[in-house]
Amino acid sequence: MKDFDLKELSKCDGRDGNPTCIAHGGRVFDVSKSGLWAGGGHMNRHLAGNDLTADIKAAPHGLEVLERYPQIGVLQKDEAPDMENPGALSWLFARSPILRRHPHPMTVHFPIVFMFSVLLFNVIYLITGIKSFELTALHCLGAGILFTPVALITGLTTWWVNYCAKPLRAVTIKMWASGFMVVTQVAVFVWRIAAPDVLDSLGLGSAVYFLLVVSLLILVSIIGWFGASLTFPLEE
Description:
Blueprint: E1 2-4, H1 6-10, E2 21-24, E3 27-30, E4 41-42, E5 46-47, H2 53-57, E6 71-75, H3 88-95, H4 97-101, H5 104-107, H6 109-128, H7 131-163, H8 169-194, H9 204-231
Parallel strand pairs: 1-6
Antiparallel strand pairs: 2-3, 3-6, 4-5
Helix pairs in contact: 6-7, 6-9, 7-8, 8-9
């Protein structure tokens, strides 16, 4: 095992042919073989050549991820952080795992499934003519409207905690798509309340209404795709 100080560790930044190394709890790992650390950066936030002890505490995964890679050295004791006195945020995450994993991956599923259901039950209504399916679609839309703000709030919190609110492309796309989805949700809901028979007969109005319902599925799919690209990035 090689002894590292912070200056020597900083040279292992994964650039210009240097190895890609990070430290945690006094241990130095070589993550050069991980595609998720290509170019010396990870998730557009973490940089190689640094001690990430505190960062792991706030990450949506545990130390087991680092255990996949070889430990090549140790960080000098006086350079290592005091694990007995972590930061307040790390302390909170360590004692409340649900906060460390973040509520967003859980709450975001509600708007997704409800938006899928709105289209599904409307299609079943158009095929069968049974009005209760169309009414179920309205109820799903209402539930989706209620849960969307919850997903947005937890999503913004996760962006702040995990990515320091940095302007990431995926997050920007999710924000725009979420804004369009909220407007479309409200428009479709108000339209349906004002015109309960909007899908009862074929016409321009019913066609536009149905296209708006389809757009809800498209928008929530975009949001889900780019959210998944942050949580489960493809390793090349």
